[in-house]
Amino acid sequence: MNVLLVFAHPEPRSLNRALRDVAVAELKAQGHHVRVSDLYAQGWKSEIDRADFPALAKAARLKPAAASGEAFAVGTLTDDVKAEQEKLIWADVLILQFPLWWYTMPAILKGWVDRVYAYGFAYGVGEHSDRHWGDRFGEGTLAGKRAMLIVTTGGWEEHYGPRGINGPIDDLLFPINHGILYYPGYEVLPPFVAYRVDRLDEKSFDLIADRLRKRMRTLATTPPIPYRQQNGGDYLIPSLQLRPELGDPGATGFALHVDNACAEGIVNSDQDRQSLPNVTTSLLEKVR
Known about the structure:
Oligomer: single chain
């Protein structure tokens, strides 16, 4: 498989970087083709502004969504953005790796999403009607591909447990897993999280590294998080409310959007996924 790892940590000697090297080495050992976007090393521009749309008239008001859609349609997005879009089209698997800072990803990685996920590429695609509300949340440009997070935290695992003061890690990562990865169509694998990394000794690092290697060996077979598809019948359209008969009565929050019945029925398969849908030539031409 082709694997793109987007990495966001400013220190080349960090533990996060060491784990990245473990993941890349294991992926290559398994025969995968790997590309790395090291955002800090690349000097990635995180903020979206007028410089992203060189064809935009000076007198025109900047409306980022509309501007990105127009630029994507005619191929005038900046070269750095088009290069990352081409990588996403190339990759069968996307891995986002970052330290958890203030309960989310570093600003440089959020800026990568803001700029690379252009209108018409990652969102704003598909028919909007009373039966189908766009190709998103399980459908879209990147459907048929897989994605996952590799995350490090300074806090204890208990701090991110069901009763932990930071809140459950699945809830903290939901906006990324569901809102950034599942939205444009990725099958989202459970995240790999390493806790208490600021105080790891060599033995503890070796244990985490071994666990990460095992996850890299099963990218093709690990069952994805069974998020509900937006247009699969579970949601009322156009209100996009979960049908009242689904989910636990009285339940609210992120867990409603995971199909627990489906989760219980998932069977692990050892067979590698050989066929992933190809992105159309016309889409590839737009990002060149």
